[in-house]
Amino acid sequence: MHTVGELLRQWRHRRRLSQLDLAIAADVSARHVSLVETGRSRPSAEMVLRLAAQLDVPLRERNRLLLAAGFAPRFPERPLGADALSTARDAVARVLRAHEPYPALVIDRHWNIVLTNRAVGPFLADVAPELLRPPVNMLRLGLDPRGLAPWLVNLADVRSVLRARVGRQLAAAPDGRLTALYEELLAPAEGEEATAPPADSDVTITMTFRFDGRELRLFSTITTFGTPLDITLDEVAIESYYPADAETAAYFTDGGGAEGRAA
Fold first, then answer.
1. Contact, 47 vs 29, CB < 8 A?
2. Residues near 60 by beta carbon (within 8 Å), at least 6 away in sequence
3. How many whole angstroms separate alpha carbon 41 and alpha carbon 249?
4. Is 117 exposed, middle or buried (0-12, 13-18, 19+ CB in 10 A)?
5. Nearest to residue 47, comparing CAs of 60, 61, 66, 21?
6. What separation in angstroms does the CA of 78 have from each of 222, 232, 234, 235?
7. CATH class of domain segment(s) 83-259
8. Domain span(s) for CATH 3.30.450.180 in the chain
9. 104 pairs with which residues across the strands?
């Protein structure tokens, strides 16, 4: 089991900061940071949290740091359906509804779909039933041949974008389950070079679906909670999709998104 000093040093190296960089950011001495990392000084819970905040450590891992230092965890993890999260849940539901007629969904840190709005439904109509058994994973849904992959015109570009996103996520906070998903769905095959996401757009990279007899071009934005104190809220994100051209916008606003089926 790692000590709190060892864990803090790992996070500092991951963020590519020197002890002096971290000390300045946390308003402590570099000597104190060194003493904590080497185990010669036992930090208070407040000091652990101060250093963790400057290192942008996820709340789940801040609890781990506190436990390693001999303190109780500070951040609860409650289901999104819990009464304590009702205000946050209602806010998420309002965002999803307000985004209609365009698709939007909520994913957790492992890319499992937590909630969707009604515009997502038609895209799942021809997905294999086994991929829709909870928890429904967005990565598998998009890249599995039984999912949306056959209707993604630019599947290779989408895979490159997802590979880069998950790669950044793992670099920021390593996770065994997410690593397994990356290896299963995104890691380059033997002899294949990992290509960078395409850079041929002046604005953003789109996903192009062949859907309902036409091509729909969508780009996405990601919304997260700004100052969460609950692990669940810290780890969920709202993925909202927007039309990238007038034809795609018309498909949704004219009612096509409510009844369309992949073809």
1. no
2. 75, 77, 231, 234, 235
3. 60
4. buried
5. 66
6. 22, 6, 11, 12
7. alpha beta
8. 83-259
9. 240
Task: Please tell me what DSSP assigns to residue 54.
Answer: H
For the chain, 263 residues long, give each residue's pLDDT as a single digit of tens.
Answer: 899 999 999 999 999 999 999 999 999 999 999 999 999 999 999 999 999 999 999 999 999 999 999 999 999 999 999 999 999 999 999 999 999 999 999 999 999 999 999 999 999 999 999 999 999 999 999 999 999 999 999 999 999 999 999 999 999 999 999 999 999 999 987 666 666 666 555 557 899 999 878 999 999 999 999 999 999 999 999 999 999 999 999 999 987 665 444 33
Q: How far is it, in rounded angstroms, from Cα 43 to Cα 35?
A: 9
Token output for 68: 């390693």
pTM of the model: 0.89
| Domain ranges in the chain with CATH number 1.10.260.40 | 4-68
Q: Which CATH number fits domain 4-68: 3.90.79.10, 2.60.40.10, 1.10.260.40, 2.60.120.330?
A: 1.10.260.40
Amino acid identity, position 133: R
